[in-house]
Amino acid sequence: MAKNQNNRIRPAQLQADLDALTALRSFSDYAPANPAYAMQKLESSLTGLKSAQDAELAAQNTLASARDAASAAEWDLHNMLLGAKDQVIAQYGSDSDQVQSLGLKKKSEYKAPKLRSKPRRSLAPPCPPQIRAPLLPPPNSLNLGEVSAVRTEGVINP
Fold this sequence. Notes:
The protein is mainly α. The protein has a domain at 36-105. The chain has four helices and no strands. The termini are far apart.
């Protein structure tokens, strides 16, 4: 017997059990010593399994449809209340106590937007861009051939 019969059997194990039952059906001389494991008992156990699985599937389908109906009803109520809040604002005004009783903020409870001051422009003309000298490679990155060419460039050979 299994240790914990509250957990579901893995589908692979259940399929192996069904395969073993199919193989057991092919034994014409199967006569167990314990009558609790007779072929009639095994077949009735299989019938019980099939009916329990069918009932579980029907319950899952019923649960899914009930969940969908509840979700639709929740959204219907939510959308109706959003419309009712808009109607309360239209009827009583956005700064009324009725609006606050619905859980909304009054218009006067919001902070006023702060005005930003523009940055001052200076009267002096903008500075001209600085001219930068081209960057030279570091002295250790030159190979000897380039160094000799650089040195002999300005020298006049007789």
